[in-house]
């Protein structure tokens, strides 16, 4: 089922949908990282939660 961009809520703000290119683009631009760096953070944390990925990236030395 496709994501309805007109219906946003808390779930849209706290999770990254790794199956939606526009979401990946948003987070890559926001954090100024590459797609590979975002994927690595996802793999290392085992999470889609924004907060967990953000914490991981900060610990890796990214200035977010």
Give the SSE layout.
Layout: H1 10-14, H2 21-31, H3 35-45, H4 50-59
Helix pairs in contact: 3-4
Task: Offer a concise description of the structure.
The chain has 64 residues and is mainly alpha-helical.
Describe this structure in words.
By secondary structure, this protein is an all-alpha fold. It has 4 helices and no strands. The chain has helices at 10-14, 21-31, 35-45, 50-59. Helix 3 (35-45) crosses helix 4. The protein is globular and about 35 Å long.
Order of helices and strands: HHHH
Calculate the mean pLDDT score and round it. 89
- Helix share bin: 55-70%
Low-confidence stretches: none
Shape: globular
CA radius of gyration is 12 Å
**Which structural category do the helix and sheet elements fall into?**
mainly alpha
The percentage of residues in β strands lies in: under 5%
How many H/I helices? 4
Our measurement of the CA-to-CA distance between the termini, rounded to an integer number of angstroms, reads 32 Å
List descriptors.
64 residues; mainly alpha; 58% helix
């Amino acid at each position: 089922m496709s994501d309805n961009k007109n219906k946003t809520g808390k779930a849209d703000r706290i999770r990254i949908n790794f199956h939606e290119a526009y979401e990946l683009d948003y987070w890559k631009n926001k954090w100024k990282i590459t797609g590979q760096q975002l994927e690595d953070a996802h793999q290392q944390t085992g999470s889609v939660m924004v907060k967990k990925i953000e914490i991981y990236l900060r610990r890796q030395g990214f200035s977010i």
